[in-house]
Amino acid sequence: MSSVIEGAEAAISSGGFLEAEQILTVLVREPCREDDTRRLRLLLARALVGQSKAEAAAPVLTLLGQGAGLSARERALATRMQATVAYLLNQEPGLGYCNAADAALLAARETGDPELIGNALFECARSGANAGDEGRVATAREQAQVAISQLAAKFRLCSLILRRIAISFSLSSRQERAAWNPPSRPGMRAKTQQAYRLVTLHTERASRDSATLGQRARPTTRR
């Protein structure tokens, strides 16, 4: 089962949402361990939301919410998808979607993952634009800027610490100095740069939504 789950994850990561949905729809009905069922449902929800199939994703997410054993990351993913489903269904363009987005942000902050936080901030901004709440959009934009600043500070701190260690211990070997030099650690740097791009992307998307959805959803004043 683990190899099948890994295959479904790879398909979703590469954009093969329909293929993953077809496989997962069958597998989720088969008897298996509770943790495997949870992972299958989460992947199925991701495949459905990736295709904007909100009506099909809603009951899957409900079952996930009712179950136990979700990790902080899984809970954050599920909660964010619930917010997306609320937006796609457009049943409650005001308070309902805003509450779902707030819950997604709270769950994302518990993980400390910049990507999850950025996705949740986008939902907060879009829910504000959808409800015609410019203040909510501005708050989400400010929080995104804070997240970017925190990432920059962490990266600078890591760089300073590693350089200080290299100098303090007088690493003479070129290979040793390179091992402590942040630019030579592509994994860490790539992850930070990816987080920058993700949060910046969500901020830009939120700004565009504010200019379009906000105008469309703004309530008219009764006379």
What do you see in this structure?
The chain is mostly helical and 223 residues long. The protein has 2 domains: 1-69; 71-223. It has helices at residues 2-13, 17-27, 34-50, 54-66, 72-89, 95-111, 114-131, 134-168, 174-179, 186-217. Helix 1 (2-13) packs parallel to helix 3 (34-50), helix 5 (72-89) runs parallel beside helix 7 (114-131) and helix 7 (114-131) packs antiparallel against helix 8. It starts with a helix and ends in a 6-residue tail after the last helix. Mean pLDDT is 77; it is low at 179-188 and 217-223.
In short:
By secondary structure, the chain is mainly α.
Poorly predicted parts: 179-188, 217-223
Query: Distance between the terminal alpha carbons, to the nearest Å?
Result: 62 Å
Q: What is the mean predicted local confidence, pLDDT?
A: 77
- Helical segment count: 10
Outline the secondary-structure elements.
Elements: H1 2-13, H2 17-27, H3 34-50, H4 54-66, H5 72-89, H6 95-111, H7 114-131, H8 134-168, H9 174-179, H10 186-217
Summary keywords:
globular; mainly alpha; 223 residues
